[in-house]
Specification:
α7 crosses α8. The protein has one domain: 5'-nuclease (Rossmann fold, 3-Layer(aba) Sandwich), CATH 3.40.50. The longest helix has 12 residues. The chain has 138 residues and is α/β, with parallel strands linked by helices. It is globular.
C-alpha cells in the first residue's frame, strides 16, 4: 500500500516529537508526498518554527530526516491526474486536488490526512492518524 501524506501530517511531525513522527520514521510504510506541494511546507515555515520552539536549522534537519522516509512524487506524475482530481475535489477544497492526483497516480494508494474535506469525496480512501496508529502501535 502506498500512503500519500497530506501537508498537515508533515507539519504535525515537524512541530512535535509525536506518534506521527514515529510512524513516518519507524513504520516502514511506503509514504509519498507530491513534490509540487513542498512550497506549502515553506509557506508555513514560520508557524512551524513558532509552534515547535525549534530553530530554523533544526526544522530543516528534521524535515530532511522525515523526507528520508518519504518518496517525493515528481510533478509530472501528478500532472497527468490533475483533471480527474479536479473533478473529484475542486469544489470541496481546491488546495487538496494535488493529493487526490497523487493518490490516483498509484493503484493502491490511500491518503493520510485528518482533514475532514477529504471525507466528502468517495474516489480515494482516506486514513486518519488514529487509524494508522492502530496498525502501527500493537
Amino acid at each position: 500500500m502506498i500512503v500519500v501524506i497530506d501537508t498537515n501530517v508533515i507539519i504535525s511531525a515537524l512541530i512535535k516529537d509525536s506518534l506521527t513522527r514515529k510512524v513516518i520514521i519507524e513504520s516502514g510504510l511506503n509514504f509519498v508526498y507530491p513534490e509540487i506541494s513542498l512550497h506549502e511546507l515553506r509557506k508555513h515555515k514560520k508557524t512551524i518554527i513558532d509552534k515547535s520552539g525549534l530553530p530554523e536549522r533544526n526544522i530543516e534537519k528534521l524535515l530532511n530526516k522525515l523526507l528520508e522516509y518519504v518518496v517525493l512524487i515528481p510533478t509530472e506524475a501528478v500532472k497527468s491526474h490533475l483533471d480527474e482530481a479536479r473533478s473529484i475535489m475542486y469544489k470541496i477544497d481546491p488546495n487538496d486536488v494535488v493529493f487526490i492526483a497523487a493518490a490516483l497516480a498509484f493503484r493502491n494508494a490511500v491518503i493520510w490526512s485528518d482533514d475532514k474535506d477529504f471525507e466528502r469525496q468517495k474516489e480515494v480512501r482516506i486514513i486518519k492518524t488514529r487509524d494508522i496508529a492502530r496498525v502501527f502501535v500493537k
